[in-house]
Amino acid sequence: MRGMTRKAVIGAAVALAATGCTEDSSQDHELARQQSGYDRLTAAQPAERMSYSPTRATINYWIETWDEPDKLAYVYLQAGNGKLVGYYIFKGLPVSYCASLTPTYRWERHGSNSSRVPAPAMDGVYYTGGGSCQTYYGRDATTDSYLEYTVGTGISALIYEQPLPRQDIEPLGFTQVEDVPR
Length: 182
Description:
Elements: H1 2-21, H2 26-44, H3 54-66, E1 72-79, E2 84-96, E3 105-110, E4 113-118, E5 135-140, E6 146-150, E7 155-160
Antiparallel strand pairs: 1-2, 1-7, 2-5, 3-4, 5-6
Protein name: Lipoprotein
């Protein structure tokens, strides 16, 4: 029994010594240098503390603004030259195709390893991951019709909770500003 314990201790010591003999890779050296630089800089220049967070206040304002069923969103599309192309009125905020109610991935175990693999979307099909994040969809304010638009290639979307005070902009959807109560 004593001989087996001694052999186990010697074996563990040899294993530890062998792992200590392996050279660090250049990547290990770079990671250590990066961490050392970060540690030195944060010690010399620690992050300040805030007594008030305007970012949190703005996020809470967004929540307060849109935390209302069927609140109208006025979406104006703007061309690259700054001119407004037209507008949609949505019931609720428009949603990007990249938004999902379920995770877009799942974890699969392979022995002691796990890997991230695509998960099927709500419609039962798989998407490439990049998706079409520039495409948005939603419900028309008065007809409940499905509406979709794409931003990019010179088109930007401006979203408001009230209509702009301009009469020269054409509706792109079914609902006009005059069709909804203010």
